[in-house]
Amino acid sequence: MTCTHCGLRPASAGAALCPECLAAGAYPPPAPAGHPHDAPYTLPPGLPLRSPVGLGRATVTLLALVAVADVFAVGADALQLDSATQGRTSDLADLATGLTGGVQVLLMVATIVVYLCWLYRVRVNAELFDQSGQSMARGWVIGAWFCPFVNLWFPRRIVTDIWNASAPPGRPAGERLIDSWWALWLVSVIADQATTRFDGDGVWEARVMLFSDLTDMAAAVLAALVVLRLTRMQHQKALGVPAAPVLG
Questions:
Q1: Distance of CA 224 to the CA centre of its chain
Q2: pTM: predicted TM-score of the whole model, two decimal places
Q3: Phi, psi of 60, rounded to the nearest 5 degrees
Q4: In this structure, which long-range contacts are made by residues 172-176, counting pairs with CB atoms below 8 Å and at least 24 apart in sequence?
Q5: Are 118 and 56 within 8 A, CB to CB?
Q6: H/E element, 44
Q7: What residue segments make up the domains of the chain, in order of their start?
Q8: Around 56, how many Cα atoms within 13 Å sit in the side-chain half-sphere?
Q9: How does pLDDT run across 112-129, given as a tens digit for each residue?
Q10: Which residues contact 132 (CB under 8 A, 6 or more apart)?
Q11: Which strand (E) or helix (H) includes residue 171?
């Protein structure tokens, strides 16, 4: 039997795909639907659709760790605010702030790398679902996050295009979840940058850092939900599984 994905190599025993396509995370073609209204999306043969499930799980795990680190950072911020309000310094607060800040930086770097790998994969898949629905070139999937000014709205636009292309046929997925995540992310970034404006005013700096970590924690949770739902939509669409509407 020939591989049903690439159509070139023999399929593995008991499988519809060859070892190379299986290793690349390719999907077999979906089974025929039993009802015309449940007809799944049919992927043109030979196109390299790759599963986002593994990268999605890794991204969600790291985002969860970011949220946990933010919880500890909020505690450190509360200690700093208490000591600043009383007009004294606290070695415990300084130590807690330094430790949580270091952990946050390390987790953020790891999360950014894995998240961008996941985002690029779901973007490539989205082109196979609906290439005309992708309004920006592939290079912006990575570059949009690092270009000043455009990073305030380009990433959201890219995620929205992928989201809409991955939605079940005839069932719009909605964008409220993306809008909520992006709004909180922007607020947390702006608040983090604003802490430099309060040099010498420990009380306001501690308050802004507390607010920044709280919004960052909420943004991490919403980002994980976006990754989970988008990964699930692509997985179901690739397998031809009739999916219930995804709200948000």
A1: 6
A2: 0.77
A3: -65, -40
A4: 172/245, 173/229, 173/233, 173/245, 173/246, 173/247, 173/248, 174/246, 174/247, 174/248, 175/248, 176/247, 176/248
A5: yes
A6: none
A7: 54-239
A8: 18
A9: 999 999 999 999 999 888
A10: none
A11: none
